[in-house]
């Protein structure tokens, strides 16, 4: 076995372990929280009172307009100056959730607006409240349209979690850095880390295809398949 | 009894309805006719408050609403009125993510809180009535326009509304498909269903409606029994409009 392959095989388990123990939970928790936030923000943008709309627009503007890396630094290294000390994982989850929330609130708002007005009216005409119309008529249709852009965001998040390395979270990239620094083999270690991210994001993409099939039963006929 | 009085409706500064009165007697079919932009669809949509008038009164059984610019009517009254009216749209507006029978059950289950088995039985009964029970488990996109509209009629009828509002029910359909929808509406009319329909289709109005209301620029020009309006209109404007029905064939064909 050549030396580089031997090194890769040796570091495979530490990297996978870091991925399973940190990258995956960090991604799942941040995405779930971020999506809930995105949904609330989208509803506020669509139906909320003006003052609340102004607040959430400010939030979206702030998060989308500044670098994620800088935001993570502010949260983890900056906030302690005003007495808010967070452990690395919590700081990362807050930073990633805020980002997922800001970007995807626009996705969710957009897909809800893309559902024809007549569908709301059909629901209203039977006496549904706005909440009922949203739940029963609009969201099931919007979910299918939202799935591809939301999956994009999810896969982007898997890779963005590598930024948590700078907050000392021992995830895949940080594990690779650690091994590279003692073996002096950055090319091998960082390539391997990239392959492991690729592995995780590929598994997640295949989950998206399955979800789309499930949500898209009624639409399969439209495309003639 | 359903009554609208002195209804004013504005879109921005444009006045779409001016002091319109409308009374629907139980068991009667009334057609709203008039050129595009005359306000007939808007008037229809004022009955179930998809459009909220700026002035006037609405009375549906024991429910009353007094409209004004400054106050919104009570939410519960609005919902109650919608629960007691059914609506059929020009473009059907079936829910594409639900099967045919689920579409018909939707209002019963979600709004009227029926249990599913009972709602399913009622839905099947209505699908049979509109001749489409064999498609109960199909997706709406697989149906023809005429079939979709018949499902939409069944859906609107499910909670036994006091009035069926039809907004251009045949306008999106070619003549053959329109005929099957007209047949269903005629059947309902003969069973004593109270209906109000806004339509371009003067043939549909003449064949089903007992009463006709002719609107132009948001004003009721003339109303009365259909036969009167179509054969002996009092107003010149009405005469001009209905002549498109009676004189639609080339002159040469008359002889």
What would you say this structure looks like, in words?
The complex is a heterodimer of chains A (225) and B (255). Chain A is mostly helical. The model of chain A is unreliable at 220-225 (pLDDT under 50). Chain A is built from nine helices and no strands. With 255 residues, chain B is an alpha/beta fold. In chain B, 38% of the residues lie in helices and 25% in strands. Chain B has a six-stranded mixed β-sheet with strand order 6-7-8-3-9-10, with helices on both faces. In chain B, strands 2-1-4-5 form a four-stranded antiparallel β-sheet, with helices on one face. In chain B, a hairpin with a 2-residue loop joins strand 9 and strand 10 (219-225). In chain B, helix 4 crosses helix 5 (145-157) and helix 5 packs parallel to helix 6. Chain B starts with a strand and ends in a 9-residue tail after the last helix. The interface between A and B is medium-sized, with 22 and 29 residues.
């Amino acid at each position: 076995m050549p030396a580089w392959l031997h090194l890769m095989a040796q570091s495979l388990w530490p990297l996978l372990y870091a991925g399973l123990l940190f990258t995956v939970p960090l991604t799942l928790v941040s995405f779930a929280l971020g999506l809930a936030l995105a949904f609330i923000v989208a509803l506020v943008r669509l139906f909320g009172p003006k003052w609340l709309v102004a607040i959430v627009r400010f939030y979206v503007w702030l998060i989308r307009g500044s670098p994620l890396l800088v935001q993570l630094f502010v949260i983890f290294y900056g906030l302690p100056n005003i007495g808010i000390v967070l452990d690395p994982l919590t700081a990362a989850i807050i930073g990633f959730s805020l980002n997922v929330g800001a970007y995807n609130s626009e996705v969710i708002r957009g897909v809800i607006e893309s559902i024809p007005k007549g569908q709301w009216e059909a629901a209203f005409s039977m006496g549904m409240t706005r909440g009922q119309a949203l739940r029963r008529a609009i969201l099931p249709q919007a979910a299918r349209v939202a799935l591809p852009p939301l999956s994009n965001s999810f896969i982007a998040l898997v890779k963005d979690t590598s930024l948590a390395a700078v907050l000392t979270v021992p995830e895949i990239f940080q594990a690779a850095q650690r091994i590279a620094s003692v073996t002096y083999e950055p090319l091998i270690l960082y390539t391997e880390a990239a392959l492991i991210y690729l592995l995780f994001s590929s598994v997640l993409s295949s989950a998206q295809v399955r979800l789309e099939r499930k949500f898209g039963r009624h639409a399969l006929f439209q495309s003639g398949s | 009894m359903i009554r609208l009085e002195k209804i004013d409706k504005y879109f921005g500064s444009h006045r779409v309805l001016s002091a319109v009165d409308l009374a629907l007697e139980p068991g009667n079919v009334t057609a709203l006719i008039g050129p595009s932009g005359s306000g007939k669809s808007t008037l229809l949509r004022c009955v179930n408050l998809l459009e909220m008038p700026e002035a006037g009164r609405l009375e549906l059984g024991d429910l009353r609403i007094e409209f004004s610019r400054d106050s919104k009517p009570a939410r519960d009254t609005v919902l109650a009125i919608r629960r007691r009216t059914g609506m059929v749209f020009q473009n059907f507006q079936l829910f594409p993510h639900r099967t045919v029978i689920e579409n018909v059950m939707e209002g019963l289950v979600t709004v009227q809180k029926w249990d599913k088995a009972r709602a399913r039985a009622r839905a099947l009964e209505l699908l049979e009535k509109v001749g489409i029970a064999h498609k109960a488990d199909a997706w709406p996109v697989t149906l023809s326009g005429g079939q979709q509209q018949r499902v939409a009629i069944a859906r609107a009828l499910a909670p036994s509304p006091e009035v069926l509002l039809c907004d251009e029910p045949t306008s999106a359909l070619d003549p053959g498909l329109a005929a099957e929808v007209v047949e269903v509406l005629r059947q309902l009319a003969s069973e004593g269903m109270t209906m109000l329909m806004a339509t371009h289709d003067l043939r549909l109005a003449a064949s089903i409606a007992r009463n006709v209301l002719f609107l132009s620029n948001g004003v009721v020009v003339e109303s009365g029994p259909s036969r009167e309006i179509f054969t002996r209109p009092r107003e010149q404007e009405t005469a001009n409009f209905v002549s498109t029905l009676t004189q639609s064939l080339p002159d040469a064909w008359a002889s």
